[in-house]
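hey so i finally got around to running the thing on that chain from the lab meeting. sorry it took forever, my laptop kept dying and i had to restart like 3 times. anyway pasting the input first so we r on the same page abt which one it is
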Amino acid sequence: MIKISKYIICFVLSCLWLNCFAGNIKTQAGAAQIQVDTEKFRQDFNRIERQKLALSIKHFQKLVEWALGLRKRTISFAEILQVKHKNSIPISGKDVDILQQGIQEHLLLREEILKVIYAFQLYNIKYDFADKELRLTSEMLSLAGALVLYDNFAISIMTFQNDAKLRRLVNRGDRGFDLNADKLEEVLNNYHSSSNRKKIIKILQQIKANRTWIDQAKVKNKDMAYLDELITQSPSVQSIQGNNTIKNYSIYWGLFKAHSKDNISKFKESAFNEVSKMFGNSVGLVQSRRGYLYKNKTVAEELKTILKPLDILLDQTPFRLTAKFIPGHFGHVAIWTGSPDELKKLGLWEHPKIKPYQADIIAGKRIIEALRDGVQLNTIEHFMDVDDIVVLRLVQAINRKKQLDTTIRAFRQLDKEYDFNFDVETSDKIVCSELAYMVFTNIKWPTENTLGRNTISPDNVAYLATAKTHPFKLIKFYYKGRDMKEEALKTYKKVLKSHK
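ok and heres what got predicted. didnt touch it at all, straight out
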């Protein structure tokens, strides 16, 4: 009986041990499964968040394009007002209207950029699952947005710094445009906020600490490369990183406050020069150098002898920030109008769509192009701050009626606004590559669907000179500043192929 009890006890203990052993194995397996599931979740999370971030940066790039165009228009308007101020010419109703529309547009753009900033400014704190590249790129997006707003504000203030009447108009607001002084003071307070500057400095320090890693990552990450260049070339960040001069501009921005005294006369000349130095050349912002063909008179004169009406020009400017975000090799499309004699020969010189531009054409402005501040006529010299230039021409000569209609369609695009949505299915606004799309309507143009919009890139235009049934032929190709001559077509095809 005792022996049986021992056996029973041993059996029970064995069962308990086996049960514990099995339980331990099960627990370890469960822990391993949790670890696997966690890693899978991390991978899925980063993949999805990267896709969201990429879409956000695409949207942000359009906002930057909008900002650059708005800055240029603001500076042009400021120059007009300064001339009136010097000649004691009163501000007209049209001036007031342009001013209020401009303020409204600046505030609208600000709201859109703030949405981007708020969505990504605390990314590395909110999400422990985010990897290093995702965290840094997200914070760089937030920082880039903040710097665009800083630069916009500083550039826009130049419009009002010499005119007390304009300052009073801005401070009073305008109910018709839903503008009030409080809104502008909110902008002013945000600009001077020490906490905002601390956030900027903190992210700048993170970027500096990870500089080697970022430089390596951005070779493959175009989004990070775009944001990094936007940040490093911002006038505001240069000031913040340098001597913190931006903190000393409060005497300037004080003129925005609704009840401030007019302290313009007290401004120090050195401070004003500093502001001018930082922001006066904002139209050329985010351009690391000049193009290889810049001010090349020999090439300019040669092009004038080669170009014929309705020739298409393509260019490449890799030294400009926005070029880094345009798919493909080429970044811009324009159309040559022809000389006064050529337009007279066509019988179009007195046409209502051409007559208003006669003086410009005579002065040498014969390139129609869509820039950030709208579709305009420019000279070949203005166009040539580039590395590459391509001239394309229709393979088959079109009959006189089609030539007349096509030329008029080109002139109809002048003075339209820039299309920051890059949508070929709209005609009220236009982007550079849409110019060819809208003018040469008999050609079946290749388009791409991006974010629900049908778009056309400069490379889409360029490919039509290499297709089997190509409607255009290559006439001239300057590549990296050199005339490719007999190697032109071969080099042209190679360049396009490398970006497919």
